[in-house]
Write a structure and sequence with these properties.
Elements (H helix, E strand, L loop, with lengths): L2 E2 L6 E6 L2 E6 L10 H16 L5 E6 L10 H5 L3 H7 L22 E5 L2 E3 L1 H8 L2 E5 L3 E3 L2 H4 L4 H9 L4 H9 L3 E2 H6 L5 E3 L4 H13 L3 H26 L8 H12 L10
Parallel strand pairs: 3-4, 4-5, 5-7, 6-8, 7-10
Antiparallel strand pairs: 1-2, 2-3, 8-9
Amino acid sequence: MRTSMRDGCLVDYLCRDAVATITLRREHKLNAFNAELVRDLAAALRRFDEDANAQVAVLSGAGRAFSTGADVRERQARTVEEFERLGGPQEPDAHSYQLFNRSVNWKPVISAVHGHVLGLGLGIAFETDLLVAERGTQFQITETPRGLGGARYWGLLRFCGATAFGTEVALTGRYFTAEEAHAQGLVTRLAEVGEAQAVALQLASEIAQNPPLSVRATVRARRWFIESLCREIAAQTDPMKLYLTSDFREAVNAFLERRPVAPFSGR
């Protein structure tokens, strides 16, 4: 039985046989991330890190999708004054970029994804240590057509092994499939429809047979290099403040109004 960490929590946590399952449960919004979901996922990852009975975690999303990314209405449809006060679309205490490096024990996390894995959800999936995807799963760096830029996700894909392919999907913002991602070495294992969780749990069980500290040494080193790369990218792109541009505002308004975007101005 799944149990939430508190009443109204948007993330479920369960540990059995040394494997924790962490499930996003904002399914009525296709697990789009608002501040509350980010905070609840951070709490679940802390619980996993501190759980002496858990050696590996499997992260998945309930409902029809792993995650469709940031909740546009709650995080991107802000006023200029709000963006300037917060320093961007994400609240300072609900920043998804910090989820996997606030660790003490450095245990591995496997993503088991299906449906859609978009934007912020894509970033989270590729920051986890291994990724299992159902056939037909659709990925997209939505930040590119939205006007926020896909540099960080380009860096993640490049780190995970996709070079020219990673550059293509970061610059075009096109959808790409689990099959394409697997061919590029981005997806650890392909699963049949409805089987991503089962395949990920089997993979987690294989990992849990090893000495825990041996496994954690690899996880710690991998995440250190990812964090270093993302910090370097942020140093290049954060000063651009793309969330204050006219093109970003037009893309968000077009999304909310369900209309085609007007020609972008480059401003």
